[in-house]
């Protein structure tokens, strides 16, 4: 499919054009297809740089959320409508920032997982379910570019062109497999989920952190990461374009004594000016000057069970419970033709096996599953498997 049915719509970039789109989509019928394009890898944060919509009776619309940063009026006009998104959890945070929050949604990627499709990317799903091939060449481009090139706009419009058709076909397939009610519970849970809390100590997710062992070195990673983040935010560029994770880890391991030593490290010497080198060396020096009590502790505070590889030594009975539970969940997931992680969160299985609920019966296990966020359909299917795994271990 090379062209949207009505051609590429003009980009909405002023209040008057936006008002017309809001009126048209409010008057449309049926679900609304929604997608957003971000500029990950180019800009700081995850904001939307293009929003695409399509609805029966309204056609397609491409909206520039830089020129029209408040789309709450559009969100309100579509408040009672089912929104169709592909991989909804990726787009919902940036849509929420501009005032678009669905009350009801249908996630075509998640529907594909539950229905047992081996490939659930939008292009693969449209091809296998509807028989159309979509051009997918522009997904990783810099969507903050202005004006957006016509081929990119065509690609963006095609992303919502067949989304409602895909939704309808997947609804029928899920119904045929007896999984539609499960999918609807999943969609409701996504729509009702509160915004994610900011990650604690995000610097600990620096790629290559496993090499950093000593607390002084951890302090350098933290100082360099936070300095990089401030610069990236101020310049509105991706942090990786300011300084690579590999360079941060390299400096932490080397603990360079001065700018000259820093410039000799990978990621710092090539084309980096003296002023830049001095700001990074200053960050290293700040970390070196920290007292012992100011240095970060190694590893994040562990909540929940230890890594499963340690279970055999720490608690052999728990290790046996986990082994039996995993085997049961794997068998059930295969029987239902869906990924194990969509049947039940692996973390939930680990927590229940590490500290089994008192009694270990269906009621207590079901309550524990619900407490960890499992939906009703998951509780119903997984409870017997976990009860059997806990009982098997008790018998042993």
In brief, what are we looking at here?
This is 3'-5' exonuclease. The chain has about 400 residues and is an alpha/beta fold.
Can you walk me through this structure?
The chain is α/β, with parallel strands linked by helices. It folds into three domains: 11-192, Nucleotidyltransferase, domain 5, CATH 3.30.420; 202-294, DNA polymerase, domain 1 (Orthogonal Bundle), CATH 1.10.150.80; 308-395, DNA polymerase, domain 1 (Orthogonal Bundle), CATH 1.10.150. It is 53% helix and 9% strand. It contains 19 helices and six strands. The protein has helices at 15-27, 72-77, 88-97, 108-115, 122-130, 150-161, 163-176, 180-192, 215-235, 239-242, 245-254, 259-263, 274-288, 311-314, 316-336, 340-343, 346-354, 362-371, 376-395; strands spanning 11-12, 29-38, 48-56, 59-63, 82-85, 104-107. It has a six-stranded mixed beta sheet, with helices on both faces. A hairpin with a 2-residue loop joins β3 and β4. α9 (215-235) packs across α13 (274-288) and α18 packs across α19. The protein starts with 10 loop residues before the first strand and ends with a helix.
Low-pLDDT regions: none
In total, how many domains does the architecture comprise?
Answer: 3
Number of helices: 19
Mass-distribution shape: flat
What is the topological layout?
Blueprint: E1 11-12, H1 15-27, E2 29-38, E3 48-56, E4 59-63, H2 72-77, E5 82-85, H3 88-97, E6 104-107, H4 108-115, H5 122-130, H6 150-161, H7 163-176, H8 180-192, H9 215-235, H10 239-242, H11 245-254, H12 259-263, H13 274-288, H14 311-314, H15 316-336, H16 340-343, H17 346-354, H18 362-371, H19 376-395
Parallel strand pairs: 1-4, 2-5, 5-6
Antiparallel strand pairs: 2-3, 3-4
Helix pairs in contact: 4-7, 5-7, 9-11, 9-13, 15-17, 15-19, 18-19
